[in-house]
Automatic annotation (TrEMBL), chains A, B:
This is aspartate--tRNA ligase. It comes from Liquidambar formosana (Formosan gum). Residues 232-529 form the Aminoacyl-transfer RNA synthetases class-II family profile domain. PANTHER family: ASPARTATE--TRNA LIGASE, CYTOPLASMIC, ASPARTYL-TRNA SYNTHETASE. Residues 21-35 have a biased composition (Basic and acidic residues). SUPFAM superfamilies: Class II aaRS and biotin synthetases, Nucleic acid-binding proteins. It catalyses: tRNA(Asp) + L-aspartate + ATP = L-aspartyl-tRNA(Asp) + AMP + diphosphate. One of its GO terms (cellular component) is aminoacyl-tRNA synthetase multienzyme complex. The keyword ATP-binding applies. The lineage of its organism: Eukaryota, Viridiplantae, Streptophyta, Embryophyta, Tracheophyta.
Length: 537, 537
């Protein structure tokens, strides 16, 4: 179940100076090797020119890659290479994932594209494949892009090292783009599961484990693994299902500004900047603007966009920049209407992911094994009080009017799973004191609020509430929370021109993907993560 | 917590101090009036308590708006009020758009919701509607939210002042949320077309014209107009069609960081900030990261997200923050493949908008009249040289190897429209010198490049090109452009691990909407625009 390593706070840090120097030295070495390899290749080419088949292989000249012509050639997708194409000639493009020579007369290349792989074979034959051609192929560096023309053949025995069950008997092979001979990360190392490493270790073999910082430093290589390709395709689908569901229910997608005036005086740290001489900061959420949109008659809105938090959090679940999925909607009479949207939206999302994206989930699970998420057709709802009671009954000491810490949330997740058989549930009616000032208090008890959090596998992914839409109450609540009302007058004024009762919620896209797939670190679900120490690539 | 971020909403800043003071004084005046109105309302309520029908009208107590109960009541959408509901009792919620008393016994209210309006009538009748009830209704301030229960009736003559051709005979009326009695902008003023103002002026009547700064200062009111509701619904659809088209063609949606180290590639005017002690800036485009995604095997990607430009541009078409629609894709052999995507994508988009969003386009056109965009089934492509020749033949003096200025672009748009009958076309093979260093030079003439711009109604909306994917050439091009190669080593290194030929383009969402609807200012298509002087609301 556990992959790589349980995250400690040190992980996810940018490389230290020492490490950076080491990397630089390593790169320098690589470049030297690359230069030598290039010289060797040039030397071998001079031999090749004596080969009558020399036109059938070699590096594609740069000029031919500058949109020289529309030839009408058709490239076949590697995923489309099946027995039906037997004996046909095909043209494919992809990366040379592995290259293996058998003596001087045979070479095997596994070529990869869009997650599919095919074995390509060069066998020396008069007038078809020369020794020099085999030499050229075996001299290619891994991850180089190649164009291959060849004949599809069907071997007698199943092919283990490639996804496609046919081979391509190579007739022509050209290198479109060379990779450096020594990659900072080998894709097969990056794609290895923790289980494989452990098994090999037990058998006395030490396999390479690529640590997280190296992965993130060379993200351009790391994201080529099947698991990473799956993760970001799932992320795209989570967003897409979110959008399509909301559009189908009459929500309008909006974009609100990330550059906002002033500098926040609230709890969270913000990134500050100078905006043409005015003090500005990066939005920590689209809260104000999505509420203005509701007061501006949009009825139901959502936004998908970056959210910035300058907090010094070094956990497995915090980033300084992440993708927020935000929703705001008019309420007819109860904040349960907002929870109803959450319920239907996420059940639809989980269903769709499980049904339509099996291949991607399998690819992720192969490297990072996980159990499918357990969730109910109708999402479980517990009040905060009920949650506290469950914890107390289990002997956990919690403040009934405080917030739950991460540990208590995790414990409650376990208790809920045992009792209700679900890893996805809503906890609502939080104590008013632990929610933002704009949260609507409960009608019957001002100690509590019309708010909720949503949990997956014991971790919070969503926070939502009914908002205070009455300017006088909003002012009073701000004052009660010790906020200088003058600093938020624009916010409060937005509700003076007729404001419908409304509520909404916010979700972190990276957290949804992380927890749906039970991944152990949010850096795995951010394409280019930003944390207090990492600002590159 | 994702959305409940403890952030204090920012203070708004008006464009100038003077204006701000004026606004403040105005608001203060309003508040005084509001207080007086409230006192008057309270006085009238004390009379109402003597009314046996007093329970059928009044302000909804706050407590009832705090999610007190799920009653199962059903609100009927105003748009759903048709003759079929004749004699039935309905419950509706909406804004009191206009309120008119006829003597003391009759009141008419036009109630608006989601762009639909219905006329509601109160007529004094024993045991049904009291004089005090009519007084309560006529005392409501415009834009207040009301709940109305009543009977649907069908009048003999067509209704001019509302979208629905039925009336609601009011039985109960409650105010859910009060607007201040004197709004800084009246919605009917904000919704007025320039033509109406001119016509009235000719008839000797001076109607209120709401200027753009006032609109933007009170955007919460301004966006309630039918035209603005249409504009932002069209914007949402432009984005949606863009996404769905690309997803259907195998593109993956990604999110790249907006916080990047150092100062952005190419351009100079960036917003700088301190990132935990490191120099950082806001991304001017996702250029580097979308290219890394391509080199990382994602084959075809797109991103929708904010783009930041700190340029001091005060034009009708520049913003400091806008929504970028970015695409990057592998190229098999020619940058025409990228132009093919642009062609099919935008033709599909224009078709879909015209077919499926007529109501929204009509609402926009009613206030801002425009001719439908003229475009061809197969988008016209001209080379830059051909464009220059057309301009020169028309007597326009242009540098054949320089960039076209805004005026020349507009003129060329006219010439193209006259000659080819289209307002949407692609101009390609731009001079290399006027494109960024990472643009691929033409195979046959290094003076030109594999690049293109796309124009709507004579204004540029898209810029695209094949990129240089060969590290050595990229280095040479950067040096030739006077860029210190050390500062972009991360960028160049991304191409050392096998990089496929690729290209892409970027579109400004706000510009597409502005030019499709022939609007005269980009601030009309940004929900909360940011320009060098505006950072609020």
């Amino acid at each position: 179940m556990e992959d790589e390593n349980r995250q400690t706070p040190e992980e996810g840090q940018a490389p230290s100076k020492k490490a950076a120097k080491k990397e630089a030295a390593k790169l320098e070495k690589q470049r030297r090797r690359e230069a030598e390899a290039a010289a060797a290749a040039a030397a071998s080419l001079s031999i090749d020119s004596a080969d009558p088949l020399a036109a059938n292989y070699g590096d594609v000249p740069l000029n031919d890659l500058q949109s020289k012509a529309v030839t009408g050639r058709k490239w076949t997708d590697i995923g489309a290479l099946t027995e039906e194409l037997k004996d046909q000639q095909v043209l494919i493009r992809g990366r040379a994932q592995t290259i293996r020579a058998v003596g001087k007369n045979i070479a095997f290349l596994v070529v990869r594209k869009k997650g599919f792989t095919v074995q390509c074979v060069l066998t020396v034959q008069n007038d078809v494949v020369s020794r020099q051609m085999v030499k050229f192929a075996t001299g290619l560096s891994r991850e180089s892009h190649v164009d291959i023309e060849g004949i599809v053949s069907v071997p007698d025995t199943p092919i283990k090292g490639a996804s496609q069950q046919v081979e391509v008997q190579v007739r022509k092979i050209y290198c479109v783009s060379k990779a450096v001979p020594n990659l900072p990360i080998n894709i097969e190392d990056a794609a290895r599961s923790e289980i494989e490493i452990e098994k090999a270790l037990q058998a006395g073999e030490q396999l390479v484990r690529v640590n997280q910082d190296t992965r993130l430093n060379y993200r351009v290589l790391d994201i080529r693994t099947a698991a990473n390709q799956g993760i970001f395709r799932i992320q795209c689908q989570v967003e897409n299902i979110f959008r399509q569901f909301l559009l189908s229910e009459g929500f309008v997608g909006i974009h609100t500004p990330k550059l906002i005036a002033g500098s926040s005086e609230g709890g969270s740290a913000v990134f500050k900047l100078d905006y043409k001489g005015q003090a500005a900061c990066l939005a920590q959420s689209p809260q104000l603007h999505k509420q203005i949109a509701i007061c501006g008659d949009f009825d139901r809105v959502f936004e998908i966009g970056p959210v910035f938090r300058a907090e010094d959090s070094y956990t497995h679940r915090h980033l300084c920049e992440f993708t927020g999925l935000d929703v705001e909607m008019e309420i007819e009479e109860h904040y349960f209407e907002v929870m109803d949207v959450v319920d239907r939206l996420f059940v639809a999302m989980f269903d769709s992911l499980n049904e339509n994206f099996k291949k991607e989930l399998e690819a992720i699970g192969k490297q990072y094994p996980f159990e499918p998420l357990k969730y109910l057709r109708k999402t479980l709802r517990l009040t905060f009080e009920e949650g506290v009671k469950m914890l107390q009954d289990a002997g956990v000491n919690v403040d009934p009017l405080g917030d739950l810490n991460t540990e208590a949330e995790r414990k409650l997740g376990q208790l809920v799973l045992e009792k209700y058989g679900t890893e996805f549930y809503i906890l609502h009616r939080y104590p008013l004191a632990v929610r933002p000032f704009y949260t609507m208090p409960c009608y019957d008890d001002q100690t509590y609020s019309n708010s909720f959090d949503v949990f997956i596998r014991g971790e919070e992914i969503i926070s939502g509430a009914q908002r205070v839409h009455v300017p006088e109450l909003l002012t009073a609540r701000a004052e009660a929370c010790g906020i200088d009302v003058k600093t938020i007058s624009t916010y409060i004024d937005s509700f003076r021109y007729g404001a419908p009762p409304h509520g909404g919620f916010g979700v972190g896209l990276e957290r949804v993907v992380m927890l749906f797939c039970a991944l152990n670190n949010i850096r795995k679900t951010s394409l280019f993560p930003r944390d207090p120490l990492r600002l590159a690539p």
